[in-house]
Design brief:
Helix content: 10-25%
CATH topology: Rossmann fold
CATH class: Alpha Beta
CATH architecture: 3-Layer(aba) Sandwich
Structural class: alpha+beta
CATH superfamily: P-loop containing nucleotide triphosphate hydrolases
């Protein structure tokens, strides 16, 4: 782990990810300093969601490395999750889940 106070808040080097023959990420590099806002823009299928899923430890990359708050997303996913807040596009309950399942999900995310 690097010191999160001295390094970037988010850093990715050469991230790759494929789904079958479809290449979602082809060597993504990015860096965001602590206290900044990073906007990721692109057309549908550009890899924005896949990148966020890798950075939030919801998906393992096929290649490359990434760190969040100094924690390696592969070597220390728990450290990443302790330092990360994530909200979906729609801030509402998931209609496919029961009330209990929604509460459990929010509790696990907290």
């Amino acid at each position: 782990m690097t010191d999160p106070q001295s390094g970037p808040a988010i850093r990715a080097e050469g991230l790759t990810k494929s789904f079958g023959t479809r290449r979602a990420l082809a060597g993504v590099d990015l860096e965001a300093a602590p206290g900044t806002v990073l906007g990721v823009l692109g057309p549908n299928g550009a890899g924005k969601t896949t990148t966020v899923r890798v950075l939030s430890t919801l998906l393992r990359p096929d290649g490359g490395r990434a760190w969040v708050a100094g924690h390696d997303v592969l070597a220390d996913p728990e450290g990443v999750r302790r330092n990360l807040g994530l909200s979906g596009q729609y801030a509402a309950v998931d209609e496919k889940l029961t009330g209990r399942e929604n509460l459990y999900l929010v509790g696990r995310l907290y």
